[in-house]
Amino acid sequence: MKIPSRYEHFVFGIVQSGLTCLVAAAIATRPHAFEIAFVGRWLSSWMLSWALIVPVVLLAAPLIRSLVRSLTVAGE
Q: CA–CA separation, 67 vs 59, rounded Å?
């Protein structure tokens, strides 16, 4: 089952934010790396940050895309 390409923006935002939050949560929980509860803390941090950042990414992406287009020159 594939998602229609008209939803590509949303799929990209969800995947990108999930990966970014996964790495950021690992970095944030690094001080607890040698504790038994590390994986639980890491997954909890990741899920919370991902749930909070997905709407931000989806709403900000069009604005960021416009800004980048205004700062760059096509074809060079």
A: 14
Q: How large a percentage of the chain has pLDDT more than 90? A: 18
Distance CA 22, CA 27 (A): 9
CA dist 12 and 55 (Å) reads 13
Distance, in Å, from the CA atom of 7 to the CA atom of 61, rounded to the nearest integer, reads 13
Picking from 26, 32, 69, 33, the residue whose alpha carbon sits closest to that of residue 49 is 26
Query: How is the chain split into domains, by residue range?
Result: 16-69
For residues 7 and 40, the answer to whether their CB atoms sit within 8 Å is no
Rounded Cα distance between 21 and 47, Å, is: 8
